[in-house]
Amino acid sequence: MGTALLILRWLRGATVVGVGFARAEGCGVGEPCVWGEVTAGLRVSRPVLVARLLELDAAGALTTAHVRAGARVGGVSVRTVWRWLDVARTEGRVEPRPRARLELSDQAWEVLAQAGGNVSVLHRHLKEAGGEVPSLASLHRAVRRDLQAGRVLPDRAVVRREREEQQTRQALADLALAGAREDGAAKKEAARRPPHPAPAASAVLPSGEGGAVTGVALPAGAQLVRTSSVRAVAEAIGQAMAAEGAVCVFGDPGRGKTAAVRMALSEVPAGWKVTWVPVPVRPSVAGMRRAVFDALALPGRFPHTSALADAAVAGALGEARVLVVDEAQRLPAPCLEYLQSLWDHPGTRITLVLCGAGSERALSRLPQLESRVGAWQEVPRLAAAEVAAVVTGFHPLWRTVPAPDLTWIDQSCAHGTFRTWAALTAHLQNALLTTADAAVDRALLGRLLRRVAPPL
Fold this sequence. Notes:
The protein is an alpha/beta fold. Helices cover 53% and strands 7% of the residues. It contains 22 helices and 7 strands. It has helices spanning 2-14, 18-25, 34-39, 46-58, 64-74, 78-91, 106-114, 119-129, 136-148, 156-174, 184-192, 228-243, 257-264, 285-295, 306-316, 333-344, 359-363, 367-370, 387-394, 403-414, 418-434, 442-452, and strands at 202-204, 217-219, 246-250, 273-277, 321-326, 350-355, 373-378. The protein has a 5-stranded parallel beta sheet with strand order 4-5-6-3-7. Helix 16 links the parallel strand 5 (321-326) and strand 6 (350-355). Helix 1 runs antiparallel to helix 5 and helix 20 packs parallel to helix 22. It starts with a helix and ends with a helix. This is ORC1/DEAH AAA+ ATPase domain-containing protein.
């Protein structure tokens, strides 16, 4: 900096011989260039250069030669130096104008993820949305910068598959093939109607409002049994509904968590609605937002922006509703944050039920949501003392099996897992229907046990 000021002082003295300075500045080929030797390797920042030139201007000694010399040591054109001086005189600013850093919103990243990382698609989307749109090159630089900083885009194949599934669902809805929507009274009547086993091979429990997810499949002639676990789940959900809170129903696979929740919500109080939200495979926030929108059976097409989708969902959740998220263990932290945002929204009235094997571990990824859970309800294995009563109430076939054999089945294979008992019931039915004079003895039961037991 000091050397540069000395150069400027030398220039101020050299301007007395203006013609000689001009000759030195424009040295010809093969001629000794004094100016080049003096300024070789010198660089002066804009604030220092403009401040020195303003000093000379205030003293009445600023000349064109000074400006040309400043352009040399500043590494810019003469016109740029004059512009710097004009800005300093009019605006009082010697520093460069601060340039706003381009930051991509979460909505822009969702569009980019849905496009498989194609920045051109994001650029077209921003143009269609209107407003000030950065250049394509600026978008590329911003995306590259954030990716280098650790931002991760979903796998292109996953995004493409989700987009194709969304397009298929939308096409079915446009063609009115997704099923006619019932009016409000018909929906309430269907929600209150008790389940009736179908005459086919299985009976399906009603899935609740909107038919968003498949119900519980049962073998023909079977019926759900209100066990102690079902009563405990019903009590926990009832308390959560009273406080519009959250409850987590967890336990090992096959213990009947989903069936217990469905039985608990089969008859909700008047004014309440129940919505089951299916969790996509490898869910993203965009996929979860679409799943909630579809589960609520909102009219019209799915909005193109997340803000419009969130507004529509929040409006639908303004009435008392139980929002059940089954297989919640699949949810990463961003999807849990999305559900928390719906629950925390001041305009919503939600009782959030998170159900699934490992859902309690999934909630540990988001402590702020974990702390809001008012009840942690585990669905344990069937106790040995209640196995006989439960399975004989579940299907009349087991009433023909002696109690010691039921205990032997549970200790050998089922281990209190309700799903295993349901599978054994279906196999036993098929064996009795396809084998003439089949006897329900330990030989037949042992063969069926090997069929449902996983290979070691």
